[in-house]
Design a protein that fits this description.
By secondary structure, the chain is mainly α. It has 7 helices and 3 strands; from the N terminus they run αβββαααααα. It has 2 domains: 186 residues, Butyryl-CoA Dehydrogenase, subunit A, domain 3 (Up-down Bundle), CATH 1.20.140; 25 residues, no CATH class. This is KLTH0B04642p.
Length: 241
């Protein structure tokens, strides 16, 4: 497979990695990036903030309902989709998916090197890892849809684009692995053909020089003579048998 295909895989995974960074660093890590805004609140992966005063909860997994600025939050009106607040703990898949994407990105970088790019084991590992990465990225998007539809902001839609890029890169890795396997198989087959040519000629010469029974050599003596063929001539042993 041309190196251009490996470069395309690296570019796709680089974009996918960047797109998954945005939702992971959303509110309360970065004030201007959020997954959704609803009822005076902005939601991120690790918490939420008020839209007016920008007062935020402490970073944690799962949303907690706290009275900010002297107001009391109503649980039924907390999330845009009316989903249960306990589902917000599933947002942990965002940093997990980001980690898997980063590892896949490093594997794609290694595939652009000649020593690693021709290894079928590394290619097989990259393909299997990419399948897990696709599933985690898709799960991240589904969690965002479940919690924030129809008020999902642009970082959440970037996760969908990232999933598509990873899926395309995974498919291209499968094609590269198949191409490398076929190329190595062709080399082995061509090398075997080159080695078999002199062996066949050797068999012909051995047949012409082998004594026959008409020359006074018995079948028992003939078999005993062929059993003492040197071990470095397997073609003659095979012929004798």
């Amino acid at each position: 497979m041309p190196s251009k295909s490996r470069s395309v895989i690296f570019v796709l995974l680089t974009l996918a990695l960047i797109f998954q960074i945005f939702p992971t660093i959303s509110i309360p890590v970065v004030d201007r990036i959020y997954l959704s805004t609803y009822n005076g609140r902005k939601f991120g992966v690790f918490g939420w903030c008020t839209a007016k005063s920008s007062e935020c909860t402490s970073p944690r997994i799962g949303y907690e309902i706290l009275p900010l600025n002297g107001t009391t939050e109503v649980a039924s009106l907390f999330l845009p989709s009316r989903a249960k607040r306990s589902i917000s703990k599933l947002l942990i898949v965002h940093p997990i998916s980001l980690f898997f994407t980063f590892v896949l990105w490093t594997l794609a970088l290694a595939l652009n090197m000649h020593n690693f790019g021709q290894s079928r084991k590394i290619l097989a590992g990259a393909v299997l890892w990419s399948l897990l990465t696709v599933l985690l990225s898709l799960l991240s998007f589904l969690v965002d849809i479940l919690l924030f539809v129809p008020y999902l902001a642009w970082p959440g839609w970037l996760v969908l684009v990232s999933t598509v890029f990873i899926a395309v890169a995974s498919s291209m890795m499968c094609i590269i692995r198949r191409a490398v396997s076929l190329r190595k198989y062709e080399k082995l087959r061509n090398r075997d053909n080159v080695e078999l040519v002199p062996l066949r000629f050797s068999n012909v010469n051995s047949n012409s020089s082998k004594p026959t029974a008409s020359e006074g050599v018995s079948d028992t003596q003939e078999s005993a003579a062929w059993q003492h063929v040197a071990p470095d001539q397997p073609e003659l042993v095979h012929r004798a048998v």
